Amino acid sequence: FVKNRLTNRPKFAAKPIEYILFFRLEAIFLLPVNSGGHTAYQNFVTENLRKYYPNPNALARSTWDIIERFWNLDLSYTDELLADKYSKFGPVPRTPSCMQRSYLLSIDFKVSSLTQWAAQLKINPLYAILSGFEFGDTPGVGTFYDFLNRLWDSAEDNLSSHEHPLKKKKVKKPKKKGEKAESVEKITVAELLPQLENTTFYLDEQPYASLFKIYKQEFLDVSVSKNLIHPNSLALAGDGTPVLTSHRERKKRICDCKEKGILNCDCNRYYSQPDCDIGWDSSNDRWYHGYDLYMLVDSQSDLPVFPLFSCASKHDSHGFLHTFFRMKSFLPDYTVSKILLDSAHDAMAYYQYFKRENITPFIDLNGKGGRPPVYKNDFTIDTDGVPICPAGQRMHRDGGEAAKGRMKFKCPEMHRKNGCISCTCETPCSDAKYGRTVHLVLKDNPRLFNDPPRSSKEWKLDYNARTSVERSNKREKIAFNLESGRHRSTKMWYCRLYHILMLQHLDAWDLPTESPLKKLIQQTA
Fold this sequence. Notes:
Elements: H1 2-7, H2 16-29, H3 37-52, H4 61-72, H5 76-82, H6 96-108, H7 114-123, H8 125-131, H9 141-150, E1 163-164, H10 189-197, H11 209-225, E2 234-246, E3 251-253, E4 269-271, E5 277-281, E6 286-298, E7 303-311, H12 316-330, E8 336-341, H13 348-356, E9 360-363, E10 380-381, E11 387-388, E12 396-401, E13 406-410, E14 414-417, E15 420-423, E16 437-441, H14 457-463, H15 467-479, H16 490-508, H17 516-524
Parallel strand pairs: 2-8, 8-9
Antiparallel strand pairs: 1-4, 2-6, 3-4, 5-6, 6-7, 10-11, 12-13, 13-16, 14-15
């Protein structure tokens, strides 16, 4: 009866009870249901690979690496999360997990256009099979955009309105090559930090909530279960990277001032990309229009943890705070033990906050924060926090006293020879047997006096891991062609970004030595 009703739908002239019964039955069967789950997908791929590729060796080894990863990738949570976002009436929808898997494949196979990808699905059996679609029955371009719309939890495609005032304060080009531009923010780090610290961010209020939930459940948590990331003692590396979205800023007037002869009015403009603006790319020494992508990465595995898009003019010192406190709200079970940042984050407010939170900071000095001119009456402090004695020599570290919150430095001319201790300095500054000793109290200047000190091998070894975030950003932009999206909305950029992060985690998971899928195909070939 149900099969007949779905095949021959009743007209509106049908009896009311028949009409109601039909739509009740249709509501049950037209939701995107994947009854077999991941096992059904694996069986589908196995059967179709036998049909279209009976000889597994006909495919390249690199292609088999992708096939194996996707064959083992369970996206059942996507079906569960997005089930309520589909209508209970109308044509039977595509399975959400298959749509997501297909979008991931398009990025992995370096096809940046959804139009081109939809065309490839129609002519390439492998792409269709791995996606979970029957070859010859694949979704069109509009179906992909409809799916991505369901991943975005907002009626607006951007975070801000298309209409907003002109920015009067713009980023200035730095004086030296390779330097980052000065901040144009109207609020200092010391003022912004307590505001964000006392703000509770709710995930369900964010437009990228569904994207983050899928990313966390199906990829981040899996990496944690494989011991690639240790959430109980996380060493985070953070950095911002420019994301070019267009070669120029596109805006137009919405007022009639020009007709009145007023050429330089301050009226609002209509921006095609309202969340983007112009910033300075220090690595390439050029202006660019787009976003500043701030990434927090696990420094031990080089795997991304949490991203955030900001406008291109956002300074890294502010971008970190917005990203870090959102990550703390959305991942409350994660405990950060170390933080690795470059000199753009060298602000006293950071050190004070990290000390309160028992987080060890590894932040490079930018040289603009200054040093105390004189310490302990006659000692100066070097650029890395090491005392310099009156004779102009750097003192040697001689351990620390955690209970008293201080570090000990001794005279560089003190030597032990034949069991005797003597000072070889021509102008000794102390009559003590062990020479002059200086204790640096950490609370006096937590920015300069840190434990471990910047002059130690331990500090340098930990700080070297900061390049993990640069490697991660490079993979996103070069290996997965992040900037090739050419999108016009923040919605599409977030969809592309989060799926690239998913692929980074997927690539880090170990594959079995022998391919079980190849064996299944060869057994019945």
